Amino acid sequence: MKRYFILALLFVVSNLYCQKQEKFKARINLEESNILPNIGSMESVLFVFTGDTHLINFYLDLTKHLKKRFKKSKTEIDFNYDLYSKKPLEADLELIPSKKYDKSDYKLICLVSLSEFKNWDNHLIENRKQNYKLNIVINRDESNHMVESAKINVNSNYTISTQNKNSSKLIFDLLNN
Predict the structure, then answer these.
(1) pTM (predicted TM-score)
(2) Among residues of the chain, what percentage have pLDDT more than 90?
(3) 19 or 93, which is more confident?
(4) What is the rounded distance in angstroms from the CA atom of residue 98 to the CA atom of residue 96?
(5) Which of 92, 67, 79, 52 is nearest to 165 (CA)?
(6) pLDDT tens figures, 102-143
(7) Rounded Cα gap, residues 27 and 29, in angstroms
(8) CA–CA separation, 66 vs 76, rounded Å?
(9) Which residues are within 8 A (CB) of 27 and not within 5 positions of it... i.e. 6 or more apart?
(10) In angstroms, rounded to a whole number, what is the distance separating the alpha carbons of residues 177 and 167?
């Protein structure tokens, strides 16, 4: 019985030490994309952010970076915030813009959401790390038929907003390919 215990212990210890340490690096990469080249008319795009109300600061920062990207193009962009939480913070609710745009006025509707959020090293405030997927679904008109989609894998340090500049660049490139 002792032999089996010692063999099992050796097996577990050897597996613990042979795992490769992978260094975390802040970056974004396109995980999957079903967005076709020449997506169509880019006259107007409505970005609709969905998810939890606690993500409002993240989405507002992403909005700021997207506005900068689209400023030089002739594309009109606007933003709707469809955020919901069972117990929202009052401060989050105050930050959500109340103006809603009609989807029928836009050629493309781009739904943006966050999924598979993971974080670690929260006790190290400035060295904490996050990993999440930024999901993008593009509809041609107000119907909810998905035309194209993309999934962006994002690694960030400190806060989830630190990679928004790069995310906005990739979203702009995906829509203007």
Answers:
(1) 0.76
(2) 0
(3) 93
(4) 6
(5) 67
(6) 888 888 888 888 888 777 765 666 677 778 888 888 887 655
(7) 7
(8) 11
(9) 154, 155, 163, 166
(10) 15
Is the four-CA dihedral 91, 71, 69, 151 of positive or negative sign? positive
CA 84 to chain centre: 17
Span 35-48, pLDDT tens digits: 666 555 578 888 89
Distance CA 101, CA 111 (A): 14
Query: Which pairs count as long-range contacts for 86-92, CB under 8 Å and 24+ apart, including other chains?
Result: 88/53, 88/54, 89/53, 89/54, 92/53, 92/54, 92/56
From residue 98, give the alpha-carbon distance in Å to each of 94, 109, 142, 157: 9, 18, 20, 31
Structure tokens at 22: 């992978």
Residue with token string 């998810």: 51
Which amino acid, one-letter code, is at 24? F
In the chain, the amino acid numbered 71 is K
Tokens of 134: 């930024």
CA-CA distances (angstroms) from residue 15 to 10, 19, 22, 24?
Answer: 9, 7, 16, 21
Rounded to whole angstroms, how far apart are CA atoms 138 and 164? 19
Tell me the residue length of the chain.
Answer: 177
Could you write out the DSSP letters of every residue in 114-132?
A: EEEEEEE-TTSGGG-EEEE
Q: Report residue 30 as tokens.
A: 């396109």
Torsion angles phi and psi, residue 158, rounded to 5 = 70, -70
Two structure tokens written together for 63: 């909005």
